[in-house]
Amino acid sequence: MTTVGVAIAIPEPWAGQLQQSRASFGDRQAEAIPTHITLVPPTCVGSGLDEVKEHLEKAASSFAPFPLRLRGTATFWPTSPVVFIALSQGISACELLAEAVRRGPLDQQLSFPFHPHVTVAHDVDRDALEQAYESLKDFEAAFVVHRFQLFVHGDDEVWRSLRSFELTGRPADRLTG
Question: Which domain CATH number covers 32?
Fold first, then answer.
């Protein structure tokens, strides 16, 4: 079985900054997980990797690049011991993209409602969660999302990008209708 995930990779320099911060909070997964916004959580696909790639190519072709802004911290506490960087722009585009990629061979029921975010502390003690929340509360980054990634979980427990899928759709014509 192959375990895959689909995500928007955060570009540099922010990816490295957030990954270093995550490691500094004692998050043991910081070095194994690239900085990202999850679209499809870890999913076993068996031998259907070619089908998954075809599906993701089709999904990517129906979306245009979109602006995204990360701003400040939030938390899922007490439901889950997670501090994350919130999105202040691009939320609905991420929701629509996630819905599209979670169809076909990646169709699944989520354990929690989809909420696009960038995890910066997970499964750390309360003090580390508070440190993450406070130290990154003024974090801000803005960029255009041009692609998403198919990640594969390796035997060494590290997530690696297998392939990028470029968003090649056309923006909606907002002047008609």
Answer: 3.90.1140.10
| CA–CA dist 71, 78 (Å, integer) | 21
Domain count for the chain: 1
- Indicate whether 176 belongs to any domain: no
Do 150 and 53 form a contact (C-beta atoms < 8 A)?
yes
Residue 37 is encoded by which pair of tokens? 């916004």
Rounded to two decimals, what is the model's pTM? 0.92
DSSP assignment letter at 44: E
Contact status, residue 135 vs residue 113, Cβ threshold 8 Å: no
Q: How far apart are CA 103 and CA 101, in angstroms?
A: 5
Amino acid symbol at 94: C
- Residues 23-62 have pLDDT tens digits of 999 999 999 999 999 999 999 997 789 999 999 999 999 9
Token readout for 70 is 């990360």
How far the first Cα of the chain sits from its last, in Å, is 47
